[in-house]
Amino acid sequence: MSKGRFGKFGGQFISETLMPTIQELEESYNHFSQNEDFNRELTDLFNNYAGRPSLLYFAENMTRDLKGAKIYFKREDLNHTGAHKINNVLGQVLLAEKIGKTRIIAETGAGQHGVATATACALLNMECVIFMGEHDIKRQALNVYRMKLLGADVISVTSGTGTLKDAVNETMKEWSTRMDDTHYAIGSAMGPHPFPTLVRDFQSVISREIKEQILDTEGRLPDVVLACLGGGSNAIGSFYHFIDDKEVRLIGCEGAGHGVDQPNTAAALQAGRTGIYHGMKTIIAQNKDGQVNPVYSISAGLDYPGVGPEHAYLADIKRAEYVGINDEEAVQAFEYFSRTEGIIPAIESSHAIAQAIKMAPEMDKNQIMVVTLSGRGDKDCAAIARYRGEEIYD
Ligand SMILES: *Cc1c(COP(=O)(O)O)cnc(C)c1O
User: Fold this and answer.
1) Which positions carry N6-(pyridoxal phosphate)lysine (predicted)?
2) Which of 79, 96, 118, 282 falls between 20 and 30 A from 217, CA-CA?
3) CA of 286 to the centre of ligand 1 (A)
4) What is the domain extent for residue 152?
């Protein structure tokens, strides 16, 4: 089976029941991704609903302060709903509509993908059902309320630990019992083929714009592109159009939690091994018996035990580099960026900022660094305050 492979990673490890639907999705995607009307409609949604193109912002204060490379930020935080996730869901929900589906299901952990999906469904008149672990529902009351306000049903998942991986399992199970009218809008560049490819394509608008914008302002390509990495959708979107430009270093920043040497680190590419999980062959954080580890990072968007298969491949062939950033480094970057640039970053994105803070001073003043700011940090303020020993709500 060579379909949807990235080297030895990727593939379609799914039940027989799901095969026809996955095949239909693959064929439809092959058709619509080449279809002018589809691409025009999607670009219209990107530009007139999500607010694209997003800015490429020169961080003058930070550049001056770190005394090294010129640092630019790709402002995905300025998109409607506050992160890059909208790029993927607009693409998938529009595709589902073209295929004739009327109902969208999705998993969510912290609720960010659930909110983005519910938003796209409200816009495009789709029924929307979001599966969320019961533990996460308790921790993320505001996002649960937002999803309901947007017209979605939120189903509480009580199996396992009641968190993201259980929600993924439950959504897959739901899909295999109801495929005729339902599309599963997966939240990152992961899962069985064709998801890693189609999610990457929808997110690759990020690197397409970065390339145009940096050529416009600097007249040359960046020396390095940095992005944070959970499942890997904003990172692969930021890397994609630079993969053939060998002189551009590509660096993915994983959530290491308490450290890459800890058994529950979420930095799969630092500490994991090859395995099969959620329909794909990839690198997964697992124990010596092959049990998937319960992983932890301060960032809910990064605490996934695997990575998308294309990242496993780029790491394998050494085209991209991957580093682990621990909680304390990310929180310091969150605070630093807020007071230095007047932009409160998502705690996920703060992992990439932390790596920029490490690297920029070692680089030359005429070198260029682009960091993808995957989302805004309003959602994280209460958790960061608590991490620093302060309660902002009673
Ligand atoms: C969900 C999320 C991430 C992690 O997801 P990827 O698929 O790895 O991009 C990163 N940043 C933000 C702001 C998110 O909401």
Assistant:
1) 85
2) 79
3) 22
4) 13-46+84-199
